[in-house]
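Reading is simple: each integer encodes one residue's backbone shape. The lines below illustrate:
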Amino acid sequence: MKDRSQTAVEIARIGGTLALEYFRRLDRLEIEDKGPQDFVSDADKAVENHIRNLINAAYPDDGIIGEEDAPKSSSSGYTWVIDPIDGTANFITGIPSWVVVIAIVYEDQTHVGVIFDPVHDEMYLATRGQGAWVNKTELNCPADRTMDRGSISTGFSKRIPGPIIVSVIDKIVAQGGVFHRNASGALSLAYVAAGRLNGYIESHMNAWDCLAGQLLVEEAGGQVEQQSADQMLKSGGRVVAGSAGVFKDLQRIADEVFKD
């Protein structure tokens, strides 16, 4: 796993460098509208294709599941889960809040999580049982945070009725919290691991958006809901993660609001 972990970091950096080249020439970007607030660009497709080629070259027997292309089955038991650009809506409008995401799943658990922010040159890495890091700094998700001492992030997509997200925000604010959204769930989870945000809550996320970030939070000493990684690969699921001081509050909010 150590070899795969370091390879994932190297591949994420190469993918992020390519994505940054596209980001610096947005005037030439080709954008496809997949639906309300859902976009894909030629940058997403090019970066995912390049990352897939690098993974195939390094570990040809490993599986690959990505946001933009068909899955490749695994004969080794390892599956790489990739989002070439998480935060495409930010990316295409010039907002510097987007990341390259890679997770490695083995035997129903996420064992490696990498989130690379090329704009700010921040490489987040978590390896199961070995802690979480950003560049050379070990991450520590503070356990003493409370709802009224920092921000809670949440995501919103076309899958979720508007009143649900409004209810989540209302409950956060009612407990003295502050609502935060940066349109990149993976980056938000990385910020939770780093102690920049107190927690994250969303009714449904795809595996490529959340597995790496959940491992980062867990390895940084935060709390996440325990889930089957294989099941998340199949259908996604709800995500609740945060400092030990707010986690139970977020779970209660999720149970109250995400009833269906």
In short: The CA atoms of residues 28 and 91 lie 13 Å apart. The two ends are 37 Å apart (CA to CA).
